[in-house]
From TrEMBL:
PANTHER family: TRANSCRIPTIONAL REGULATOR, MARR FAMILY, TRANSCRIPTIONAL REGULATORY PROTEIN. This is HxlR family transcriptional regulator. Keywords: DNA-binding, Transcription, Transcription regulation. GO terms for molecular function: DNA binding. The keyword RNA-binding does not apply. InterPro entries: HTH_HxlR, WH-like_DNA-bd_sf, WH_DNA-bd_sf.
Length: 161
């Protein structure tokens, strides 16, 4: 039993904002889940279909973590059968701006990173472990959608040629 003088256990990364954010969004599924919720409320099975190769358990875990950190709101409707919907909170919507910037950067630099990894592997420095392939991004559509998210004077990243 804890004593009154015992200090509460601090969460990992609690004193470091970037660590806390990266702990939440740095996994394989959080960004894809947030992106899938960008269009509005969705039910669990809709998210499963839109995200793709995610298991029910992993989507459930990801949604719980995003809800816990305030990115996602879960609403349960009292009906039979039960209906549950997920949507972005204001915090989650505010994260779309840097998230889209990161997605754009990843799309622009994917080829260069792949080449660098291949060179590294060719030199025998480390094996490349291919992960699940990215689902294709509708680049032009997404870039066009970014225009309204940037404050004046901050243009979207230039297109790669």
């Amino acid at each position: 039993m804890p004593k009154e003088t015992d200090e509460p256990k601090q969460q990992p990364g609690a004193g470091c904002p970037i660590r806390g954010v990266l702990d939440r969004i740095g996994d394989q599924w959080s960004l894809l889940t947030l992106e899938a919720l960008e269009g509005g409320k969705k039910r669990f099975n809709e998210l499963m279909r839109e995200i793709g190769d995610i298991s029910k358990q992993m989507l459930s875990k990801t949604l719980k973590h995003l809800e816990q950190d305030g990115f996602v709101r879960r609403t349960v409707y009292p009906q039979v059968p039960p209906r549950v919907e997920y949507e972005l909170t204001e915090l989650g919507r505010s994260f779309l701006i840097p998230m889209k910037t990161l997605i754009g950067w990843a799309e622009q630099n994917h080829a260069a990173i792949t080449i660098a990894r291949q060179r590294h592997e060719d030199l025998g420095r480390s094996p490349i472990r291919p992960g699940a392939p990215c689902r294709p991004f509708e680049r032009e559509e997404r870039i066009a959608g970014l225009a309204g998210h940037f404050p004046r004077g901050i243009p979207p990243a230039p297109r790669s040629r």
